Amino acid sequence: MKKKLLLTAAFFASLIGHETTAQTRYLDADFFSSVTVTSNVVYGNNLGVLTGAPVAEDLLMDVYEPSGDVATDRPLILYLTTGSFLPRYINQSATGSKTDSATVEICTRLAKQGYVVAAVDYRKGWNPNEAITDDRTESILRAVYRGLQDAKTCVRYFRKDVATNNNSYGIDDTRIAVGGQGSGGYISLAFGALDKLSEIQLQKFYNFSSNEYMVDTTLMGNWSGLGGNPALNTNNHAGYSDDILMTFNIGGAIGDSSWIDAGEVPIITMQGQADYFAPFQYGIVTVPGTTVFVIDVSGSSDISRMQEKFGNNDVFKTPAISDAYTTRANAFNTTNDATYGNGGDEGLFAFEGAANGNGPWEWIDTVAVKAEATAWGQDGDVILDNFYAANPLFEYLYVTGGYAAARARAIAYCDTIQGYLSPRLYRGLLEQPFSVAEFAATEVSVYPNPATDQIAFVSEDSNPISEILFYALDGKVVRREANINATNVVISNLDLPKGIYFANLRFKGANTVKKIVIQ
Predict the structure, then answer these.
(1) SS3 395
(2) What secondary structure letter does DSSP report for 498?
(3) DSSP E strands: which ranges in 318-475?
(4) Whole-structure pTM value
């Protein structure tokens, strides 16, 4: 997904880095002491396939916000859940829900740092028991594709809320990141890279048993979740952008490394070097618990090398990020350069060792899991055995030290994820050059400019202005005019100090930036 950027003078301010700011919000853990969670927010509705035939289902998310926070320009992070593209317990696993332990933990931590965070569920459903290999591959590829469509629907939901509902979540919708864990990582990586028909029409994605490509956009809609056959795909929040600034991945992989092109968004990727479920390099994914082939993909090692090749992660390099987590990541990349080719890569954190390969950041209450699995009509003992097989050190610690010891190990991995992720999220969302996607730009006249305390904006093509955000040179929002819905807007009391600003004018389906001078 190539971003088209309007670079402003804030670019030069952003190069100064942390040295000029005393900010700790978005960087320090527990900047806020608690969070408020709004559960089961419906962000869209689309046709799922869990029952075999397409059935409409609500798309749900839990929204985490810092308790007591009055800011209205907070960056937004979408966090996509894991689960092998099937619901928890149905997937014969103890994970697969937006209420999984690690999902709740990481979303809570990020919200305490000051972000608005959405734990996003998406349509599940594929058939690992397909007898024909191409049909099995097609089934999982379509599941990833539906998840990608839902994630983009969610981004548009928030932008629509900003434009039409007085920004009820208090976000800055020019600063959005999408991340995911496990299968959610597959979706987040596709979000940042999949943007061309040719990328889903590779030979590996051709079904030779049906003689057609596995994803047909005329049926399923495009990667934004728009178009296609109405009986298979529902348009959600059309007319709003789903562009984002960056992505991150925890334990997932990308459908093909060729999806990554120059000029695409930065990627932070964290994975077990001995991950059994998603290859660290290039490799195959099998049906869980078997050796049955599903698809071949590229993991974190390949992803970071491609990002390095194209310079997509250079934003993390100047000025260099320096902390214990970065030192540890760089040491692995340098030491293992001959094996993985990641010597100079930025944005890759590898968890070493077989015991740390498969989601060591997860933990469960075994009694509760067994009871819940039984209530879902599944064998609770099988669910526990599968979790233990993927995470044997958890089982050992649970047996020898109890729940507290097993949980403490998982929390330590969450500490590492947060420690490595935080400065890069800050760099990508707060410090990198101020940018706005150039989609269907609308011409706007501004007068007088320079201005003193009054300024007017006129939309030249009769497209009503819905909102105006004023940015200072450091990229911070210093004033917001919302719910406008007019083509001619006069602001009589600017009340801004003398200097250079950038006015980001929002329209339905359009975005324009104008430089203004206040005398």
Answers:
(1) helix
(2) S
(3) 348-351, 444-447, 455-459, 467-471
(4) 0.84
CB 517 within 8 A of CB 448: no
Which tokens sit at 74?
Answer: 């907070």
Q: Which residue in 115, 69, 133, 96 sits closest to 378, CA to CA?
A: 96
Instruction: Tell which phi-psi region holds residue 54, choosing left (phi > 0), alpha (psi between -120 and 50) or beta.
Output: beta
What letter represents residue 351's amino acid?
F
How far apart, in whole angstroms, are the C-alpha atoms of residue 284 and residue 133?
A: 13
Tell me whether residue 262 is exposed, middle or buried, using C-beta atoms within 10 angstroms of its C-beta: 0 to 12, 13 to 18, 19 or more: exposed
- Integer Cα distance of 7 and 470 in angstroms: 15
Q: Could you identify the residue written with the tokens 């719910």?
A: 483
Q: How many CB atoms lie within 10 A of CB 508?
A: 18
Question: For residue 118, what are its two tokens?
Answer: 């959405």
Residue with the two structure tokens 């890759």: 348
Q: Give per-residue pLDDT as tens, 286-342.
A: 988 888 999 999 999 999 999 999 999 999 998 899 999 999 999 999 999 999 989
Q: What are phi and psi of 120, to 5 degrees?
A: -105, 125
User: How many angstroms separate the CA atoms of 210 and 221, rounded?
Assistant: 20
Burial 376-388 (b: 16+ CB within 10 A, else e): eebebeebbebbb
**What are the beta bridge partners of residue 477?**
471
Write the pLDDT tens digit of every residue in 350-396.
999 988 999 999 999 999 999 999 999 999 999 999 999 999 999 99
pLDDT tens figures, 236-281: 999 999 999 999 999 999 999 999 999 899 999 999 999 989 999 9
Taking each helix axis from N to C end, the angle separating 392-426 and 380-390, rounded to the nearest 10 degrees, works out to 60
Instruction: Give the length of the chain.
Output: 519
Contacts 24+ apart (CB under 8 A), 55-60: 56/234, 57/123, 59/121, 59/122, 59/123, 59/150, 59/153, 59/154, 59/236, 60/98, 60/121
